[in-house]
Structures are given as C-alpha cells and as structure tokens.
Amino acid sequence: MRTDSRLSRMLHVLLHMARHDRPYTSEQIAGMLQTNAVVVRRTMAGLRAHGYVQSVTGQGGGWTIACDLNKTTLLDIHRAVGGRHIFAIGLDNDNPSCAVERVVNSAVADALDRAERLLIGSLGEITLAELAEQFYAICRAELKQ
Amino acid sequence: MRTDSRLSRMLHVLLHMARHDRPYTSEQIAGMLQTNAVVVRRTMAGLRAHGYVQSVTGQGGGWTIACDLNKTTLLDIHRAVGGRHIFAIGLDNDNPSCAVERVVNSAVADALDRAERLLIGSLGEITLAELAEQFYAICRAELKQ
DNA sequence: AAATTCGCAACATCAAATGTTACAAATCGA
DNA sequence: TCGATTTGTAACATTTGATGTTGCGAATTT
User: Fold this and answer.
1) Among candidates A5, A140, A45, which has minimal Cα distance to B93?
2) Is the CB of B89 under 7 A from strand D?
3) Which residues of chain B have a pLDDT value below 50?
4) Per residue, what are the HEC states of chain A?
5) Length B57 CA → C25 C1' (Å)
6) pLDDT tens-digit profile of A63-120?
7) Domain spans of chain B, in order of start
8) Positions on chain C within 7 A of a protein C-beta
9) Which SUPFAM superfamilies match (chains A, B) (predicted)?
10) B126–A92 C-beta distance less than 8 A
C-alpha cells in the first residue's frame, strides 16, 4: 500500500487548530494537507472517537481541538488514527511448521519488536505542547532576524 | 503494498542451503516457501548479485550458498534483496513550505530514524552462523527428549 | 427555505510486493 | 546432436491498505 501519513497529517492539523479559536472546515483542512475533504473527515473521525477533536455540522461548523496539549502525545494520535502496520517488513508465515523457519522468524521478529518498542516509546514521550513550543521557538528566532 | 517478506524468506532458504551439499532448484525452493519458482529466481537474483549464492542452469543445476555464514549478517541479506521501505509509516510531504509541518516532520522523522537505526543495528549483529547454531541447538534438545 | 457543513457509503486509484505465464538460453546426459 | 532440465527475464495479473472521488442524506445557522 502507500505509506501511511495519517500521523503526520493529523499532527499538522492539530497544531494549526491549537492556534486558531474558530472551527476549521474539512475543506480548509484539506487545503492545508493538499487532499480531499472526505479524506480529512475519515481520518479525523478517529481522533473524534477518542475525544481529541470535536466536529459540528452546519453553517459555521467544522473541527476544533478538544484535548490538553500537555497530556496528548504523538503515540495517542498514532493510535487514534488506527495505524496498525508500523513496518513494511514482516514474516513470511506466522505459524511455520518448519523448524528452520521458526528460528528465522524468532530472530527477525525480535529485531522488529525492539525497534517497534523504541518507536512507540519515542512517540509516547513527545506531547503536542512540545511540538507547539518548537514552532513558537522558530517563530521567535525568525522575528529576531 | 503487501508486507515485504523477502528477508525472512531468503534467510529461511539460506539456512536450508547451508545444510545441503547439492543445489536446490527454484522449484524445490518455491516448495519450501509455498510460492512460485519465478518469485524465487527474482528474489534470489539479488543475493546472487552480491555473491551470497550461486546459480547454475541446466540439468542438475540450481542454487547453492556461496558465503561465509560467520561473516554474513541479516543486514547483508536485507540489503541484498533490495528492501527499501522499512516503515509503513511516513511523512506526508518531504519538503513542506509550512513551518508547522516542518516541526511535525522533524519530530516524526527523528523517532523513525532512531527506530530504524536500532533495527539496522540489530540485523547487523546477527550472522547466519548464529541462526544455524540456534537451529542445531533446537535439534539437539529434541533428540534428548 | 436556503446555504453550509459534516457523515457516510460506494467505488476508483495508487504503489510495491507477490503471483503467473511464456519463452529464450544454457547445461547435462544419452 | 537431441531432448530434458533448469535458470533468466519480460510482461502482465493479483493483492493489500492507504488515499482519492462522487453522491447524497442529515444537521445547523441565517
């Protein structure tokens, strides 16, 4: 399949929403992401189901952020968008009858598991607030020039 | 796309070849992997290009292992099969004009890079000889029962 | 009532691995 | 040399899950 960019996309949107006091429509968000409003609704439905954003229908409606930036991590967003596959690499057969294959699977799965735990750990340590602060730091640096 | 199982498959084949003094035909290997002989030839062509295996055409031909098990790591095989994408997850846009998106990309890419380095490091530390030894250890344990 | 906006189903597209078919080329044995 | 075996390779089909698209109903505001 294509590479799953839902995490990056949603983080991008959430940081914009954090600096905006009115709702963004799906069309506006689709413009930010250079995609389609239906893709936005579909992906953000996962965030809404976990309470990270809210949506309102009708005129003047749209999407607003609904979570504490200090308590929401990149891992929370990753899980909310439903990303199942982290790796493009995998085992050939999860329950091999061949003992050679079981040894191979065990070694490869072990390496993959360690990398996955590191990635999950990294994502779990970064909050939306920290990303927002990085953005403000860049803005302040550019103002000084 | 589907998950890339070329590394696991080739490791499986290499360990079988290491215990076999005659060539395996692509058909025999396809039988081990429950796939098609053309898939086998295509994938193993990468290993051959790096000198890890040899192939001989014609009657009595087939594939033989041609590397030092003690010097060949899982990383060598991973690279030989041409696996480019390690992650199913990625950035939405590699060169964003939006400063918010650049902050997001930097954080996500950083987490992915660290996990990738750990995985590459793990694969580079395991030799084919070590996998073969794990297999023999299992065989010895089963004989004792 | 009209315009706006989300919700959602249904289907199309994309990308890369995997699967399949067909045939040429090389090698071995009789 | 002939025939069987086996690899080499091109061309095309299939699979899988994210992404893209169209259409229309439902909710909300004015």
Assistant:
1) A5
2) no
3) none
4) CCCECHHHHHHHHHHHHHCCCCCECHHHHHHHHCCCHHHHHHHHHHHHHCCCEEEECCCCCEEEECCCCCCCEHHHHHHHCCCCCCECECCCCCCCCCHHHHHHHHHHHHHHHHHHHHHHHHHHHCEHHHHHHHHHHHHHHHHHC
5) 9
6) 999 999 999 999 999 999 987 899 999 999 999 999 999 999 999 999 999 999 999 9
7) 6-144
8) 2-10, 14-22, 25-29
9) Winged helix' DNA-binding domain
10) no
Chain B closest-CA separation from residue A122 CA (Å):
6
Residue B108 pLDDT: 98
pLDDT for residue A83: 79
Q: Inform me whether the pLDDT recorded for A136 exceeds 80.
A: yes
Rounded, the Å distance between the CA of A15 and C1' of D17 is 27
Rounded Cα distance between B123 and A112, Å, is 9
**Cβ–Cβ gap A104/B5 under 8 Å:** no
Residue at minimum CA to C1' distance from nucleotide D15: B2
Which one of 3.30.830.10, 1.10.10.10, 1.20.59.10, 1.10.1040.10 gives the CATH number of domain A6-144?
1.10.10.10
Question: pLDDT, tens digit, for every residue of B131-141?
Answer: 999 999 999 98
